[in-house]
Amino acid sequence: MNKKFYLNRLGRTVLTLIGVSLIAFLILHLAPGDPARIMLGQFATEENIELFRARYRLDEPLPVQYGSWIAGVLRGDLGTSIRYNRPVGELILTRLRPTLLLTVSALILAVILGFTLGILAAIKKNSWLDYLTTVQAMFWISIPAFWLGILFLYFFGLRLRWFPIGGMVGVVSLVLPVLALGLREEAWFARPMRAEMLEVLNQAYIRSARARGIRERVIITKHAMRNALIPLVTMIALRLPWIIGGSVVIEVVFSWGGMGSLLVNSVLARDYPVVQAILLLIAFAVVMANLIADMLYSVIDPRIRLED
Amino acid sequence: MADSISYEEIQRDIANLKKERTSQLALVWSRFKKNRLALIGGIIVTIMVLTAIFAPLIAPHDPYRTAPLRRLEAPSLEHPLGTDAMGRDLLSRLIYGARVELSLGILIILFEGTIGITLGLLAGYFGGWVDSLVMRLVDILRSFPVIILAMAIAGIMGQGVYNVVIALGIVGWTTFARMVRSKILSIKESDYVEAAHSIGESTSSVLLRYILPNAVSTAIIMVCIMMPTALIASATLSFLGLGVQPPTASWGSIIAAGRDYLLQAPWISTTAGIFIMFTVLGFNFIGDGLRDAVDPTSDRS
Asked: Are A299 and A254 in contact (CB under 8 A)?
């Protein structure tokens, strides 16, 4: 039973990874017309287009192109950027650290804030605090990330001059992007956390703990909160693609030299080897995070294995 | 023959069950009306929709008439929200922007809804390999952040309104498919569908007359839940220069244009964002109220 669950889950992961790579590959061929012409633009000469086609093997049939691309990826060769004429892997590697710094900090902020607010709202159900948590969450999820970034940039950067308005100069330049990304994301943790905590508080063992006369504080911190924490793993994995998506926009607003701004610039310049590689990398990270979350979840809460 | 049920009695039961559905809908409506936030949401969305429809009547100026000598003017009586970098009246552009943004949202929902509802219905009703196939596809697409995949697709297809719709539709249908599928699964198990099968209703009749009407409330909730994502994502694409292109007045591109003049004319980016925020907030309030009204036990009670 146990082994079957893990094998099943692994099989699904492999299938998803293959599908993801297919999509990242096929995106270039989605538009009608010649990919070489699309990437080089309308002013490219015939000669250049021919050279380009030969270099990127665009004349070969699609399955062959896909095969050689994947073989390269598996060897660690992500292709060559058209715009920079440098290996894509190298480009991404230099941009990886700033992006990780931004997304991980924002995620930590979001989880801590969301968790605290969600738990408090559940404990003080139907109080003003509960109501406020709901309403503030609604406001955050209604604000586009890029606009929040611009607002912060304007008020705290340009007006108050508390923080630099862009670039990466030390920890201070991290503050605004992390706030813009993390505060918005908090809303997505606060509400499910509240619902989870409410459900846990309704369980029989909480009632019996109360009946045994255990102090409310102990019940909440020792009995309830621990169990409400379990779904947090899954929540983080579910929100990961959204945080990464948000970070791309935030990076553009704050001129943050990470993978997100590289991606946007590459899309605008039609540097598709870079776009495909970043798509593949991000999807890979998301798939793996989901796998890890499921595995962790089934270890913490063995009931889940029987359901699949 | 006292313990067996006659055909007429089964028919009466089905009729009663059907009646229960309508009263349930009335119940949902009465719960929804009591929700103050949902009411506020309804008012906001109504105002925005009316603004979009009557834009030519409401807008004080032509949103496309440039006036190079009156660029970046601060808000005044003539220009209530000031002018942009080309001297165009900002309020008029924002009012016309409601048209662009809402029609984009509706088109995106229609497109992704058509794909999502069809695939979700098929997956839920037929199960088996159809279900596995659809769900694997959903898994694959959901591994990409919505905005990133849409960006890449819009980038390769070129800018423009319809490409935004296609890019976001291809990426966004998975939520619809999943919700429809799970709704169908629960309806399929219900007594009245079983009863309909037992009196010999055909598959298509069960799908159309019994399952679809019961999925309608889900569909309405879905539209309200999906609208915020569609609006924010399309505005984000426009902001990044991959969506609606200037001079067309879209909120996203107005924010992008105002970004270069934050110090001289902060009202451009800020007011455009407020329009987006309130519209999205309106839909979120309605969606939330509907969800609570349909399933009062799920959240707060």
From this structure: no
Contacts of A19 in chain B (CB under 8 A): 136-137, 139-140
User: To which H or E segment does residue A67 belong?
Assistant: helix A62-75
Partners of residue A126 in chain B, C-beta under 8 Å:
300
Cα–Cα distance between A6 and A172 in angstroms, integer?
Answer: 44
Selected residue of B44, B129, B137, B144 to mutate for chain A interface (largest A Cβ count, 10 A): B144
A166-210 pLDDT per residue, tens: 777 778 888 999 999 999 999 999 989 998 888 888 888 888 888
Which residues fall within 8 angstroms of residue A30, CB to CB, at 6 or more apart?
Answer: B153, B156, B157
> pLDDT digit string (tens) for B208-254?
777 777 777 777 778 888 999 999 999 999 999 998 888 888 999 99
ipTM of the complex model: 0.90
Q: What is the pLDDT of residue A303?
A: 66
- Residue B245's identity, in one-letter code, is Q
How is B93-160 classified by DSSP, letter by letter? HHHHHHHHHHHHHHHHHHHHHHHHHHHHHHHHHH-HHHHHHHHHHHHHHHTS-HHHHHHHHHHHH-SS
A301 to chain B nearest CA, in Å?
22
